[in-house]
Design brief:
The structure is a single chain. The protein has 49 residues and is mainly alpha-helical. Helices cover 82% and strands 0% of the residues. It has one domain.
Length: 49
């Protein structure tokens, strides 16, 4: 995405598409992280520190 922004500009359609795809992937990752953290038992969280 950054290479596209540097080469074509931040408002170029290609850059915006990359940005939207990155946003989508980051949202999926965030949802997966939240789901996995809810499945973790409190004792496991305590032991990880």
């Amino acid at each position: 995405m950054m290479r596209s922004a540097i080469n074509y500009g931040f408002t170029a359609e290609q850059t915006i598409q990359y940005s939207q795809e990155l946003d989508h992937l980051m949202n999926l990752y965030d949802r997966m992280s939240i789901t996995n953290s809810k499945e973790t038992k409190p004792a496991q969280i305590y032991l990880n520190y």
